[in-house]
Fold:
Amino acid sequence: MLKVFMLSKQDKPMLVAGLILILLCSAFAMNATAQQNAFAGEKIVHVLEEPRHRPVMQEDQFTVFDMQLRPGDASLPHIHNQAILLNRISNPEGPQYGIVEAITDYATETYTHKIENSGTYLWRIIGVIHDGNGEPLNPNDTPTGMTLEPEVEDNWFRAYRIELAPGESTLTQTHSNPTLIVQVTEGLMHVSREDGLTRELAQPADWAYRDVGSSFSITNVGDIPVAVAINEIRIQGAK
Structure:
């Protein structure tokens, strides 16, 4: 005997939502499979295992890496599955002066690719990979002593760009999140803590790290203007 089930008005939205979720999951799976097939026969690794993306600092929730790709070189195919912040120091055509970009879609949709340097200039990025779940523990975690608006702000990262004339200093600033200070143009600067300890940055891609609540100021001690990117890695729950 054939039984016919009728959906109530309350059930229909749930069914539609379920079908949409199934379709989205299928699309993501098909996309990931297509990416993998594009590199058939090649070794595919996670981005943090890719030799040109060298980890230079690792904490529980994030990793700082230094990506360097020389002219004529290519990376291994590699997988992205975490939010990432990129400080673009240079690309194959020349300097990029610290263009900052966040790619948070990687946290929800795995992406596999490889990169090739077909230009004549070193391709270099100082980046941060965040393994959080996209839910900041403190939504009101803006720093003190910062007078500029962020160039990047999302649930994983917050990034500022500061340009200093020779002899100029920032205000003392205090961040509620781990903070990465990256020099992005030529020049000479000092990152000074309140206890007097100073880290000197002397060229693009030099960086300094400050832990949560560690107040600091930045001074241009050179004779040309200099720019710096200040990257916050927002504390949040683990995946």
Q: What stands out?
A: Residues 45-133 form a domain with the Jelly Rolls fold (CATH 2.60.120.10). Confidence is low (pLDDT under 50) at residues 1-5, 19-30.
